[in-house]
Amino acid sequence: MIQVDVLVGLQWGDEGKGKIAHFLGVHYDWMARFQGGCNAGHTVIHQGKKFIFHHLPAAAVLPQVKVFLGPGMVLYPPVFVQESQAIDKTIHLSGALQVILPTHLLIDVLLEQARGKGAIGTTKKGIGPAYADKALRQGIPLKTLLENPKAIQNTFLWKYHQQWLRLWESEPPSLDDFWQSVETMRQWLKEGKLKLWSPQAWIEYCYRTQERLLAEGAQGTLLDLHFGTYPYVTSTHTVSGSVYTGLGVPPNVIKEVFGVFKAYMTRVGQGPFPTELQEPLASRLREWGKEYGATTGRPRRCGWLDLNALQYACKINGVTQLIMTKADVLAKLPQVQVFYQDQFHSFPSWNAQLIDDTHFETFCEFIEKQLQQPIVYVSYGPETQQIYQRTTINVS
Ligand code: IMP
Q1: Does the pLDDT value for residue 393 go beyond 60?
Q2: Domains of the chain: total
Q3: pLDDT over 90 for what percent of the chain?
């Protein structure tokens, strides 16, 4: 039976999961995504070269790692084709994952406009509308699209979207890119750059092999459709439990759950943020931490670490090992704060190298004590080598 570890974000996404997945990737045979689509944006620096992935897991750049996109995902062909050109290997995809059509992007924009002040602040990548159509059982599985692309135009969904388009006031964008990327995917299937898996074939494979797989979450726990700050959430389950249905592996194969969190909090889009910072500190942290969305370029809201939220996220996900990122960003401040129970706790800051810094150790120990979990790794910069181990990690 395949062995699965899971890596999830414990905040509102953008915790730096991409760098960590790339770092841990050397221990695995497979890297897989189980939810979301191109609302995600991972920046990975591999051998001095920068990659930005939206559908692909971050460790796709590692030569020995096989890549699987599970049926819990949605995929937008033009973006997928563009990012996949940078990767010279077979990409394994579930034929059951759902396609985002160009009209899903337009509907996302129309819905946000209609919400007015109550807008969610989505990435406008068509995620919500695509998952809604899937739940309405009128979505388009990838296999269906690739087998007979033009037949999609005769589906109920296509016609239903034409109704929506009447609300679109400007000229709808050309569909050429979409169809061209579908043709490229069909060609890649023939050439072996893509391989489609049926749910049955995938589960048979999992039962047969002893391979190791890291399931890489996108977004973060507080954006989960059930457990996040609804309605200011994404349309998927971002927590570790989502791996079973989003990937097609049984619960008994999961071992480690790596929970990644930033030393402070950020959020893009609307919704509650109890520890949000005011100006000018918010802007300073944003600049120091380069807190701008990898997908949309939007400035992220910034705030102090919320340990209540982190405690909740650890419980929901069953986190077994914690990984802290961007600890160096807070080193620029004289004092840092952490919100726990109903008060802020102040800590003197540390030097940017962190290692053996007693102030930084005090900060980590406070977090570990409340969360009852070890912080196994600390990342202190974007470069691959800017990470160190605080305690023994358990990846077998
Ligand atoms: P959607 O996923 O595009 O529908 O957006 C819903 C909410 O999730 C918005 O607040 C987005 O900003 C947020 N969101 C979606 N994807 C990401 C991500 O990868 N990082 C951070 N926030 C995200």
Answers
A1: no
A2: 2
A3: 88
Helix boundaries (H) for the chain? 17-24, 77-84, 102-115, 127-135, 142-147, 156-165, 176-191, 199-208, 242-243, 281-288, 307-317, 327-330, 358-371
Q: Do 185 and 200 fall into the same domain?
A: no
Do 344 and 201 belong together in one domain? yes
**pLDDT tens-place string over residues 105-122:** 999 999 999 999 999 999
Q: Residue 172: is the preceding peptide bond cis (ω within 30°)? A: no
97 pLDDT above the threshold of 90: yes
- Check if the beta carbon of residue 206 is closer than 8 Å to that of residue 101: no
Q: Under 8 Å CB-to-CB from 379, ≥6 apart: which residues?
A: 16, 19, 20, 23, 323, 324, 325, 326, 327, 386, 387
Token pair 């290997």 is found at: 89
Confidence of residue 395 (pLDDT cuts 50, 70, 90): very low
Q: Say whether both 150 and 260 belong to one domain.
A: no
Parent domain of 186: 98-190
DSSP run (H or E) holding 53: strand 49-53
Q: Is 9 in the pocket of ligand 1 (CB under 6 A)?
A: no
pLDDT tens digits, 206-219: 999 999 999 999 99
Q: Is the CB of 123 under 6 A from ligand 1?
A: yes
Assess whether 81 and 105 both reside in one domain: no
Q: Are residues 79 and 102 in the same domain?
A: no
Predicted local confidence at residue 46, as pLDDT: 85
Residue nearest to atom 23 of ligand 1 (CA): 219
Measured in angstroms, how far is the CA atom of residue 16 from the centroid of ligand 1? 15
More confident residue, 315 or 295: 315
Mean pLDDT of 260-266: 98
Residues with a catalytic annotation lie at 14, 42
CA of 219 to the centre of ligand 1 (A): 7
Contact 197, 93 (CB under 8 A): yes
